[in-house]
Write a structure and sequence with these properties.
By secondary structure, the chain is an alpha+beta fold. The protein is built from eight helices and nine strands. Strand 4 and strand 5 form a beta hairpin.
Length: 370
């Protein structure tokens, strides 16, 4: 039976069937080809990341983040901190600060003897509103806060707790003698006297004489221990007295705890009859060194909670250069007329040098600043 089929009953002729087999093996031109797995992966990467594809065996490390800006900023900050620490006053001047203004950064507490005097300030006079302007004291602490008390340790006859109380009461004496507003107005230093050993006869005699005499001598001047102004002559500007100093201690005679105070007080004052904001303002600067002994009651006659005085020394500027009166005498309006020793010049803010104990009350040095 003939029809469209081929050999063996197939509907495809033999020659067509042979051609089909040959093309299946060799591949026909233009016939679609199934892409391999590798080709499909390359095509996918090209679609996802246009551009030159990476080689199959290459490695591109991640690029490091640029930190140049951070490094430069850090270096600038370090240099700036170094400049501020070495030249604080000059830096304040660059930014319009007065170097001694009341907005200056407070100084850290004094923990050891300074190596040099404070840096120079801009030459600005004090005013009723800014009585410490133009002075290193502008950055000092107020009142008792400026007197550094060291950590306590067992010394002499006292354990650590007793030494701590002795140090605290030693500072209380300095506060009562040099910062009590009533004493500064010329009243009797009752609280300070209460801390002194009543059995120390020479000191008790000094107190009786100095606080009752109208004409004290250099040896009986109450200013040796107490800060006093005559209220009808001068008054404090505001209620802040700047201080800077510290206490130290060691074992003294007969096992006593001997405390040494070295403190500078800065008192801004104006005439008692001053006219408000137009008033003249001076700074009376007083540096005191007081050595106090906390005696062993088993070896020295004393009373609990009282100290004995070993020595006391005073140095001052703008406190008077004539015969002692028992009060500081600020030289309002006559600063250039005060009798001074032109050959002895002192910086009242320089705490790196010891007090000149050879100076007398009527032998004032020339102050380099106030």
């Amino acid at each position: 039976m003939s029809g469209a089929g081929g050999q063996d009953g197939s509907s495809v002729p033999d020659e067509e069937w042979d051609r089909f087999l040959r093309e299946s093996v060799a591949g026909a031109p233009g016939a679609p080809v199934e892409p391999s797995a590798r080709a499909r992966e390359v095509e996918r990467r090209l679609r996802e990341r246009p551009g030159q594809p990476e080689g199959w065996r290459t490695y591109s490390p991640a690029r490091p983040r640029r930190r140049t800006g951070r490094y430069v900023a850090g270096l600038v900050a370090v240099v700036a901190l170094l400049v501020v620490s070495l030249f604080p006053q000059q830096v304040l001047g660059w930014f319009g600060g007065d170097g001694g203004g009341q907005d200056g950064a407070p100084l850290a507490a004094e923990s050891e003897t300074p190596r040099e005097a404070p840096g120079a300030e801009r030459d600005l006079p004090p005013t009723p509103d800014e009585p410490f302007r133009g002075s290193p004291a502008a950055r000092w602490a107020d009142g008792a806060a400026g007197i550094t008390v060291p950590p306590a340790r067992a010394t002499g006859w006292m354990d650590a707790a007793q030494v701590e109380r002795a140090l605290r009461k030693s500072r209380d004496f300095l506060v009562a003698a040099g910062l009590d507003p009533r004493v500064l107005r010329g009243e009797r230093p009752t609280e300070a006297i209460a801390l002194l050993n009543p059995h120390q006869e020479d000191i008790q005699e000094y107190l009786r004489t100095s606080l009752s005499s109208k004409r004290p001598t250099p040896r009986t001047d109450p200013l040796l221990l107490f800060s006093r102004f005559r209220p009808e002559q001068s008054r404090l500007v505001g209620d802040v007295v700047k201080t800077r100093g510290r206490l130290t201690y060691r074992e003294g005679e007969k096992g006593a705890v001997e405390v040494t105070a070295d403190v500078t007080f800065v008192y801004p004052v104006t005439p008692a009859d001053g006219n408000g904001r137009d008033s003249e303002v001076l700074r009376t600067i007083v540096r005191r060194e007081v050595v106090m002994s906390w005696d062993d009651p088993a070896r020295v006659i004393t009373e609990p909670g009282t100290l004995s005085l070993v020595s006391y020394t005073l140095d001052m500027v703008n406190g008077g250069c004539s015969a002692p009166t028992g009060y500081f005498v600020p030289p309002f309006g006559t600063a250039d007329e005060q009798p001074t020793d032109k050959d002895r010049r002192v910086d009242p803010y320089d705490r790196s040098k010891p007090i000149d104990a050879t100076a007398t009350g009527d032998d004032c040095a020339t102050a380099t600043r106030s």
